[in-house]
Amino acid sequence: MAKKLVIKVTAGVDAPERCSQAFTVAAVAVASGVDVSLWLTGESSWFALPGRAAEFELPHAAPLPDLLDSLLAAGRVTLCTQCAARREITEKDVIEGVRIAGAQVFVQEALADDTQALVY
Fold first, then answer.
1. Cα angle 49, 58, 31; round to 5
2. What is the pLDDT of residues 55-64, one digit of tens each?
3. What does the alpha-carbon distance between residue 77 and residue 96 come to, in Å, rounded to a whole number?
4. What are the b/e assignments for 84-97, b being 16+ CB within 10 Å?
């Protein structure tokens, strides 16, 4: 098993099952002791803002705010720089603990030794 897991989630309320799967896999991995880095891109970018995860609903899925809280506590959550800019989201807007970074950082993380990258 990879010691590090980088997950890029591109879906939000537009594809709720895919979105939930990404957050669930990330949260289970972090709970299992895996070093997890979750990247919010595309429509999932909105979950970097306070209260937005609470608006997400999917029957029979773990509550998104709980999953996000576990990732913020024991993993890393990053908002894509370009995705943030397109939505006029700045560092002062995001939940505490969410960083904004670009493709160079994503590639660096994804290509690190003992790392598995997943895209949802």
1. 70
2. 999 999 999 9
3. 10
4. beebebeeeebbee
Name the DSSP class of 45: G
Retrieve residue 20's tokens: 């939930």
Tokens of 8: 């890029």
State the DSSP code for 61: S
- Tens of pLDDT, residues 62-76: 999 999 999 999 999
Q: Is 6 helix (H, G, I), strand (E, B) or coil?
A: strand
Beta strands in 26-70 (DSSP E): 35-40
What is the amino acid identity at position 71?
L
* Position 36, amino acid: V
